[in-house]
Every structure is written in structure tokens, then in C-alpha cells.
Amino acid sequence: MIARSTPVWLLMLAAMLFGAAVQSSSARAITVEEVTTPMGIRAWLVLERSLPIVAMKFAFIGGAVQDPKGKEGLGRLLAGLLTEGAGDLPSAKFKKRYLAIGARLSAASGRTVIFGALESLASPIDEGVDLLRLMVTAPRFDSEAIEQVRSRHLSELQQAASAPEKVALQRWYAEAFANYPYGRPPNGTSDSVASITADDLKEHHRKLFARDVLRVVLVGDLDRSRAIKALDDVFGSLPEKAETDKIDKIEPRKVEVPIVAEMDRDLSAAVFGLPAIDPEDPDFPALQLLMHMIGSGDFDSLLMQEVRVKKGLAYAVRMNVVADNLASVMVGDVATNNENMGKALAGIREVLASAAHDGFDARRVEDAKSYLTKSFFLDFDGNAKMASSLLTLWLHGKSPEYLQTRNKALVAVGRQDVKRVAERLLSPDRMVVTVAGRPNLQE
Amino acid sequence: MRNFFRFVAWACWSLSVLGAAPANSAEPASEFSLENGLRVVVVPDHRVPVVAHMIWYRAGAADDPAGKSGIAHFLEHLMFKSTAALKSGQFAVELNRLGGRGNAQTNQDTTVYFERVPRDSLRAVMALEADRMMNLRLQEDEVRTERDVILEERRSTIDGNPVKVMGEQMLATLYLNHPYRRPPIGWGNEMATLSQADALTFYKRFYGPDNATVVVAGDVTEREVRIWSEETYGKNKQAAVPMDRMRPQEPRRVTARRVVLERPGSATLLRYYLTPSYASALPNEAASLELLAQILGGDDGARLYRALEARKLASSAGVDYIGNALEGGRLAFIVEPFTASSMADAEAVIDDVIVGMREGELTNEELDLAKSTLDARETFARDDLLSLARLYGEAAGVGRSVEDVEALSKRRHDVTVDEVRQAAKVYLDPARSVTGMLVPPKASKP
Predict the structure, then answer these.
(1) Which of the 8 DSSP states describes residue A197?
(2) Which of A172, A170, A173, A152 is nearest to A161 (CA)?
(3) Residue percentage of chain A with pLDDT more than 70
(4) CA angle at residue A439 from A434 to A441, to 5 degrees?
(5) What phi and psi values does residue B92 have, to the nearest 5 degrees?
(6) Sign of the CA dihedral with B163 first, then B164, B167, and B173 last
């Protein structure tokens, strides 16, 4: 209360100081440089000098859809083995080397890409770059390491098989994309994983790791020439072209009734989803707004309002656009006790139907715009996050200019555009639903 | 001679890391207090126009009155309902409109509400938090609905997750007397009885500026935060929150204990040892415990995983020092054996590794590696704004200062081989331990 009695002149001084502070402290814009290195590596570069770390994140477009039939999980196993020995360093020595410099090397696989990353202190950087080069160009696939990673992988599969939300998600892709590579389990099955050999891994690595399918982003405390040299050092010796199978874009098929994967649990988990549109589609900004209003998972999002706040049926319910170079879908999930699952799903259908039928009030659309535009840079508040976010944009076919144009496109969307997109995309009869548990599907 | 050069190389490297850790502090972290007792910590970082804002109340699950376990957490949920100025649920709407994302978390000794927002929205977020600090209004029906939600949260995040159930049972066994034995979310039977009056009593007792610390990390200056916090939080009246938190203390340990839980899924082996926390440890002790955990099982290069890997017993293994509570911490071992049948062998490996630590050799080289690994980890923790704010907030929540946080990284460099071994001898004592075995039921398929 004493604060209120501050003399007026002090407040004025404060205001002046504060005005000055705003100018001096305000962060500069993110400057992304698109570079092509002397050895022809295309990369996005952000020279961020204020924290002494470097994040290099990359993706090879390929991923689980490139796993040969019967060898599902090959890309996943390959990613798992990248950090388990390379060049003349077997697993333990390789790990010891990167742990000794406090660096993190990692790799992961997705449905359509294999990811990798180096996070290192900016000094020393040479050792981290050299280990990453070995990891990308000369993974060893020692039999002992293969068995180790395979066992871990099998125990994860087993764990996933007992987690209703994972069972429901895998089943959703299997149903929506039945008979297509896109619908196959990206982590494989215990049989397919058991059948993978060292030769399979070597062959897969040779085919997939090439410069034409590489996307790489570097954010960190390096000068430009060192950053460019690092990119050449790591990726320069890869073959020019990948030998990948051509795979066409695909949409989820129609599945009439909820598919149930029986599991003996008190709780059941459901995944629901519909076809969406590509990130390049002019209506995509409207879809972003639509999905935010419906499925952000925030308390005020429509699904949360209906299922959690009004009916207390579930702790969380979300729905999101998941897009890559082969498919774009809106997928959501919800978990609740078995008894309430039918009611929760009915609530979800109602929300989607009403969005398509009634549209949204202007206030809600404006709030969504305000959120999506203002919050954009929250995904960039760290070197590692910035690198990941930029890589995602690139994989979505964007250029760095998108950082400037994105918010303008969102602002330009009208309330009617959102309704039109809702009508176009939210047809409840296209909704594919899978449930794992012992759900009561009575509404 | 070779060893000498190696030593020099290590020393230089450690120094460079030591110099590197606070390198973003062209403007260092600082703290100040408002007249009403609110403490404020500012950590400037100007990479992007974003800030992380957190408010830490010194009230948590261990402050739940007997028979009301879960009330601190229930109140955390209810804080998103109405205030005198905001309609129910409007907090989230306002936050979104400001371009922010937020959430909250209830720990044993603290409850924290946090947001990440564009820098231009910081003052408005402070105003929202200052409002709900004093002006919460609850309605009976929304309290009832929200109680269903926390019960559902318990079912889905704990009861449906065997490892979490195991962890809960182990804490209830590790602590014989202290309220840390209760899960922060509460026991289901007591949660079902929590009322609006219970929540408001807790709120009035613990929520006020003199029992909280605000941490802001990101694109701001101390001056801006001073002005904005005066204009928002500064208007709240001191609440005269009683500072004594006398809780039942632990008796002398008598024997090791075991918990076995049969659940479908894969096997997991856990072991906890009761230790002091950052706040309750002697000056070098917490740093020694951190290093001990790192040497034992901080990553795949550490002793435990290497020993298990050599015998092909486990797919993953780690040791963590969990020390962010006020009065007690733990060294936590977790091993995922390949099969339930290798559980006994895996446990024998844990015991061997511990004996090796208590009685065997520990070189300066191994200790230095652990130190530089923890330094690097701290530098990485400073990358993400929320984790940067958390670094200071977690400490502030249990009464530690900015200086204490920064002293810990320095102190780490002074820890000796003998101190680490001493920590192992004192704290890796079987009588301080609980071992937990999560195994699939015998009848079911592996």
C-alpha cells in the first residue's frame, strides 16, 4: 500500500526510464539465413551469440514409410543405433567421447522422416561436429549394439501394447490408412523387429541418408564461416541422391463405427480424426484458427468446455492438425473411465457438428487470432526449440519469409472463412474413431 | 608427464565451462522485494521477445492438513475459476488473448503457476496473477465439477500408470512419519471429501504476497519488472502468512524395506534412499549428492548402466538426486530390466555398484567428468526460458536465493573425492532405503 504514495515526479522519472528500457531491452528479430555450403549442403542458419551453445537439428525425409514390408521398425531401429557407435568407435567409446564434452547427440524416427540432433557447448565444438559426422556417415551397426537396441525397442513395444492411449493411436493409423505404408506401425511389431539384420540396417542407411532429402537447421554461438564448415564436415560426404520408394499422398479412408481394441483396464483411451488440408493450402490459416478454438486443450477450447468443464468426463481432450509431406489429418485424443467413453465421444461429435453448422462468434475468432499471432514466438524461446521449430517449418514446405508472412495470413482470415473450412472438413461421418479399453459406447 | 598434461587439459576445460555457465549474464540475475513482502527474481535474456513468468507460493502438498490430502492441488485447479474481476474460466481466456500459455503444478512444499507470454503482455499477466492471489471466488457447483476432474486426473495419471503407482507406494514407505509420505495429488478417498470450505481455508492461510516469489526470465530488464510488479502485485496487502511449517519429523531408520507390485506391463526396479534436500543439506553436501548421482547413474556412460549393459540385464538405468523439497530429498535408482526374471540380478548389480562407490576407487578424472557434465547440463537448462526461470524459482520456493543457486555451481567445483565417498557412505545405507519391484502378474503373458 505504501507503493501508492510514491511522489509524482518519481513516477514520471520511472516512466521515462521505462520508455528508454523498452527500446534498449527489446529483442531483435530472428534472422534466418538460407545458405548453400561449398559442398552443396542447403541449410538454415541463425547465428545466436548470447548463450554459448549450438543446436544443429536435421531430418532425412524418408522415415517409417520407407521400411520394407515385413521389416516395419527398421527406420526406428536405425535411428536408435546411430548413437551406438560409429567410425572406429564402438558404442561405449562413442558415448564416452560425447558425454565427455557435455554434448548431446540424438536421433529419432517418425512416420516420414528420420531426425537427428547435436546440442553442444559452443566451445569446444570440433569434437561434437566430428562425432556427428561419424554418426551420420559411418554408423557401425555392431551386433552387440543391435541386440541391445533391439531389446530396448522390444520392451518399448511391449510397454506401448499395455498403454491404452498408444494402442488407440496405432490402431487409428492402421484403420484410417489400411493397406498403405503410411498406416503401418512406425515402430514395427515384435516379429518385424526381430527379423531385422545388420545388412538391412546398412542398406537402409545407404539408401536414405543423402543430401537431396536432407533438411538441416543450425542455431547457435558460432561465426558464420565455422557454422558453414561444420555443415560441410558433417554432411558433405553423403551421396547426392537418396534411393527412396516413391510414395503418393494419401487421405484417411471412411470407417463407419468406432473400432475397439479390447484391453482389461478401468480406463479407456480414444483417438478420433478426420482428413485435413495441406499446410500449402490457402485455407490452412483458417484451419489453424479452427483447430485452436476446438482442440487446443486449453480450458476455454470447445472440446474441453464440453467434455471437461461442463460434463467432468475427462481430464484432457485435444485435437490437432498433424501434417507431413504425405498426409494431413486432424487427430484428437481423450481418456476417460470405461463407463463414460460413449458420452465423451458424443460430446466430441456434437462440438464438431455445431462448429460446422453454427460457426463461431466473432469474439472467439478474434481471440484465437490474437493468441495464434502473439504466441508464435513462444516456440522459439531457446536455441534448441528455435532449431526444431524452424526445421518443422521447412518440412512443411515453408521458407524463412514465413516468419514475417504467417501472422499477416492469420489476421486476414474472416469469420466466414473459418465456418467455410469447418463445413468443408468437419463432417462427423468422416470421423474415424478407435478406442482401447472396455468402453461403454452408449451415448 | 602424460597425466600432468591431461590434468592441465581438464583444468582448462573445467575453467572454460565454469566461465561459460553464466555467459548470457551481460545482465545478471537479480532479486528484490516489494513493501508487501513479495520477492521478485529477474533473469534477463534477450534472444526473442518472450518472457517466462512464474509465481511460487510457499505452500504445497506437505502443508495439507491431516485428512485433507490433495487440498493444495485441488486449490491449484480452483485458482483457474472466478475472481472478483473475472468470470469462471476467464483466466485462461485472458491469457490466450495475450498470446500466452500457462499451467500450474503442486509440489510437496510449493505451488507454482507459470506462463510464457510475449514481452508486451508481461504486465497484463502480472495483473492477472496479482488478482487471483487475493480475490478468488468459488461457486459450489464448479467446485463439485472440478473435484470430479481431479479424481479423473488421479485415475488417468497415477492409477493407470503402474510406475507412478509404484512411486507413490514407495514414498509412503520411505517416509514413516513426515507428510512427504502422501502423494501431492492426494489419496483418492480423501480427495473425494474435499470441499469448497477446505480450499478457501487453505487459500486464506497461505496465499499472499509475503508468502510468494515471482520469477521473470526473458526479454525484460530488472527496471521494467520493478515497475510492473509495483503496479500489479504491489497493490496487494500483506497477508501475514504464518511462516512456521513444523511438520512431524522422521524417526531413526531401522531397516531396509521392500514394496512389490504386480501389474501388467514391463518390469521396473526402483530404489530410493532418503537424503537431505538442497535446502536442508550442509553446504557441500547437496553438491556432493548431485555428483554422486551423476557418477552412479547420470547417463549411459555412468557406472550403473555400464555394469548392467556388460551383463545385458537392462534396457535403461539411471540415478537421480531429487532435492528440491524443503526438508528431505532422495537418491532414486530406476532400472528397466529386459525381463522380470533378470530383476534379482539387476538388483545385485545396483548393490555391487553401491559397494564400489562406498569402498572402491573413485578417481579425480571420473569426478571431473561428472562436474563438467553437470555444468554443461546447467548451461543447457538455461536455453529454454521456462527451465531458466524454474532454475531460480524452485530454489526460491524453498527459501534459497539467487546467490545460493549460483553458489551451487561454484561449490560443485570444490567437491572432493572424499566428500563424494563420504556422501555415499552416509546416505547409501540400506536402512535408509526402499526397494520397489514392479512385476507382471505370474499368470499373465510377459
Answers:
(1) -
(2) A170
(3) 94
(4) 80
(5) -65, -40
(6) negative
Q: What are the chain A neighbours of B43 within 8 Å (beta carbons)? A: none
**Contact call for residues B72 and B63 (beta carbons, < 8 A):** yes
Whether residue B219 and residue A27 make contact (CB cut-off 8 A), yes or no, is yes
Q: Please give the Cα distance from B184 to B173 (Å, whole number).
A: 15
Q: How far is A378 from chain B (nearest CA, A)?
A: 6
Q: Searching chain B, which residue's CA lies closest to the CA of residue A370?
A: B97
Q: In a mutagenesis test of the A interface, which of B96, B159, B369 is the best target, namely the one with the most A β-carbons within 10 Å?
A: B96
Dig out the grid coordinates for B38 from the structure.
513479495
Q: What is B134-197 written as a DSSP string? A: H-B---HHHHHHHHHHHHHHIIIIIIT-HHHHHHHHHHHHH-SSSGGGS-TT--HHHHTT--HH
Pairing mode, strands B257-262 and B433-439: parallel
Give B19's pLDDT tier (boundaries 50, 70, 90): very low
CB contact under 8 A, B152 and A386: no
Task: Name the pairing type of β-strands A42-47 and A214-220.
Answer: parallel
Backbone angles phi, psi at A36, to 5 degrees: -120, 120
Distance between start and end Cα atoms, chain B:
55
- Count how many residues are written for chain B: 446
Of residues B31, B76, B146, B336, which has the active-site annotation? B76
B47, B89, B376 member nearest A27 (Cβ): B47
Chain A within 8 Å of B98 (Cβ-Cβ)? yes
**CB-CB neighbours of A322 under 10 Å:** 12
More confident of the two residues B333 and B16: B333
Cβ contact, residue pair B46, A48, below 8 Å: no
CA distance A240 to chain B (A): 34
Chain A contact for B23 (CB, 8 A cutoff) = yes
The three three-digit cell numbers of residue A142, written as one number: 555392431
Question: Is B400 exposed, middle or buried, given 0-12, 13-18 or 19+ CB atoms closer than 10 A?
Answer: middle
N- to C-terminal Cα distance for chain A?
55
Helix, strand, or coil (residue B430): helix
CB contact under 8 A, A121 and B152: no
Q: How far is CA B131 from the centre of its chain?
A: 26
| Best CA proximity match to A439, nearest among A298, A344, A354 | A344
Predicted local distance difference test score (pLDDT) of residue A26: 53
| Parallel/antiparallel/unpaired status of strands A89-90 and A33-36 | unpaired
Annotated active-site residue B76? The verdict is: yes
Q: Grid coordinates representing A389?
A: 521449430
> Is A159 close to B265, i.e. CB distance below 8 A?
yes
Residue whose C-alpha is closest to residue B186's, from B309, B12, B61:
B61
The amino acid sitting at B292 is L
pLDDT tens per residue, range A345-393: 999 999 999 999 999 999 999 999 999 999 999 999 999 999 999 999 9
Eight-class DSSP state of B303: H
CB contact B292 to A (< 8 Å)? no
When CB atoms are compared, the residue of B35, B376, B446 closest to A102 is B376
How far apart are the C-alpha atoms of B439 and B444, rounded to whole Å?
A: 11
CA distances B13 to A25, A327, B371, B379, Å, are 32, 48, 11, 14
Burial of B231 (0-12, 13-18, 19+ CB in 10 A): middle
Which among B351, B347, B63, B33 has a CA at the least distance from the CA of B180? B63
Mean pLDDT, residues A321-336 taken together: 96
To test the contact with chain B by mutation, choose from A47, A98, A381, A406 the residue with the greatest count of B C-beta atoms within 10 A, namely A381
Q: Which residue has the cell 561434437?
A: A128
Sign of the CA dihedral with B18 first, then B23, B27, and B33 last: negative
Name the residue in chain B with its Cα closest to that of A149: B315
Give the C-alpha separation, A175 to A433, whole Å: 9
- Is A25 within 8 Å of B220 when comparing Cβ atoms? yes
